[in-house]
Amino acid sequence: MTKKEEVLVEEGSRQAPEKYYIKITPDGPYLVYGNPPIDQEIILPNEEGSSWVYQRGLSFDSSATPVALCRCGHSRHKPFCDGSHKRATDWDSNETNNKRPLLEEAEELEGPAMVLADNEKYCAFARFCDARGRIWNLVQLAETEEERELVRREATHCPAGRLVVWDKETQKVFEPPFEPSIGIIEDPGIRVSGPIWIKGGIRIESADGKSYTIRNRVTLCRCGQSSNKPFCDGTHASMGFSDGLPLEEKARSGDSAF
C-alpha cells in the first residue's frame, strides 16, 4: 500500500491494526501478514436443517510470515498454497471486482424499525438468511425486539457481508465484534467446502497495489472459479468444491465465531 492511498472503511466496520493485511499476488496465492489465527468454521444446522451456527474445527499453523493460502483451488495441501497454480489451466487469476464499496451498489429494503442492504453478487451461499424465515421478508415486518434480533442474527451470520442491517432511528449498523482472524468455511450440509472468511477489518490489497474497501466480514474465493474475484460468489456450491480436509469439531458449543 502506498502512503498516499486513502483506504475506505465501510460504515459499521473498523480497520484492523496495520500489521494485519492480505496481499493478492499476480497469478498466485493470497499472502497473509500479521499471523492472525486460522481455523475451520463448520456450518452446522438447527433442528429444521437450516444453517444456524458456526463450530470451530481444525486450527492451522499461521506462524509463517507470510502465510500463503491457495486461491486457485488445486493445492494438495489446502488451505495452503503448494504451487499448483503454476500448473493449473482451468482458472483465471484476474481480479474482476470493480473495487466499488459493497454498500454503494446494494439494494435497500426498509422495514418499520430496520433497513437491510443487500448486494447479491457477494453471496457466499452460506444460507443463514433463510434460517427462520427469509430475511428480506422478516425485515419488512420486524417490530418487536425478538423480531429485530432475528433479523440482526441472520444478517450478521452472513460471512460475506452481503447483508448489512442497521437501525432506522439511531442509524447504528449492527456488526459482530470480530477480532482479526481467518476462517476456512466448511459446509457439510451441502457437502462442499466454502470460501476463506476474513474477519475483523483485515485490509485486502489487490495485485495492483490498491486496497479494497475494508469490511468487518469478507469472503475470498478459494475454488478459483468465482466471477467476482477475489471475493466469493457462491460458485463453490454449484461446482461441488471440496478441500478434502477432515471435519473435527472442537468441544466448544454455540456460535464460536461470535
TrEMBL record:
Coiled coil: none annotated. One of its GO terms (molecular function) is 2 iron, 2 sulfur cluster binding. PANTHER family: CDGSH IRON SULFUR DOMAIN PROTEIN HOMOLOG, CDGSH IRON-SULFUR DOMAIN-CONTAINING PROTEIN 3, MITOCHONDRIAL. SMART domains: ZnF_CDGSH (SM00704). It comes from Bacteroides fragilis. Transmembrane segments: none annotated. One of its GO terms (cellular component) is cytoplasm. The keyword Metal-binding applies. Residues 55-91, 199-242 form the Iron-binding zinc finger CDGSH type domain. Keywords: 2Fe-2S, Iron, Iron-sulfur, Metal-binding. This is CDGSH iron-sulfur domain-containing protein.
